[in-house]
Amino acid sequence: MAEPAQEGSGFNIHPMDQFVVKPLFGDGPISWYTPTNATMWMALTVLAITLVLVVGSRGRALVPSRGQSMAEMLYGFTRKMVEDVAGKEGLKYFPYVLTLFTFILFANLLALIPTSFSVTSHIAVTAVLALAVFFTVTAIGFVKHGAAFLGLFWVTSAPLPLRPVLAVIEIISYFVRPVSHSIRLAGNLMAGHAVLKVFAGFAGALGAGAVLPIVAITAIYGLELLVACIQAYVFAILTVVYLNDALHPSH
Amino acid sequence: MEGNIAEMGQFIGAGLACIGMGGAGIGVGHVAGNFLSGALRNPAAAGEQTATLFIGIAFAEALGIFSFLVALLLMFAV
What we know:
The complex is a heterodimer. By secondary structure, chain A is mainly α. Chain A has one domain (35-247). Chain A is 66% helix and 0% strand. The longest helix of chain A is centred in the C-terminal third of the chain and has 44 residues, at 163-206. The radius of gyration of chain A is 22 Å and the shape is globular. Chain B has one domain (22-77). In chain B, 87% of the residues lie in helices and 0% in strands. In chain B, helix 1 packs antiparallel against helix 4 and helix 2 (19-41) runs antiparallel to helix 4. The longest helix of chain B has 28 residues, at 50-77. Chain B is rod-shaped. The A-B interface holds A 1-2, 16, 81, 84-85, 180, 183-184, 187-188, 190-191, 230, 233-234, 237-238, 241 and B 48, 51, 54-55, 57-58, 61-62, 65-66, 68-69, 72, 75-76. Chain B: It is found in: Cell membrane; Membrane.
């Protein structure tokens, strides 16, 4: 374990303290039903999505208001992404992709509010999302194509002696998918928030004259805003790519 | 200057693991740079390929994130 920082240097901020899951009421042991700060921020995420999508599209005006236009853009953007990558058949699974995309996007953005809790920086959360995608996509592949889905691992465009080797590589890369899918999101978010806290620690140590750390925090915050959107997009588009593999398994 | 040798190994290992992030940086730069040079040659086709760009960046970046994860595990979990 890393030792705590030297005493007497302003206030000490440990960069990993922000990721601690705490119960909302009291500080008893945490079981699966205990409402924690993670529960609260996930609920707030769902609430924010509901506000933007349901309240935004309530008016159904021909000339959209600001809120309606935001909801329409979010919907249209995701729909176009699914259609471009997975084709017309993929649109059947568009609601799932929209759910994933909006949940991760809003969780990432809410995590950027100072003193909030970043839900998606926990591997437990992203792993469940990624495993759900993995099992769904595998099930869709087998239901749609039966045993022919295994053709995904048998690269017919390669020379015959190479195919068993490629099959091993393809199978490994298939099973690594949920790992990289979940760790990419959690790692990016965790790294970004830890960096913000490290610079906040510098600012705390320097006190009132901390111009440089504050400028750095502002710049990194902007970068994190970009990362929050890009990672949500990447998670959603990889879901669609995997879905496309299941719908059209031939290489 | 005291402490045990296992802790020293953890810190050195975490530092070494961070070298992997440089590789991810090279990879992401390569993807983005090649995209840009292609996009400047044929700007009309660039718009449709941004999804591919982000997928490529995501794959290249994942490996850097893995090394970051190894560093974090060494620092806080081992």
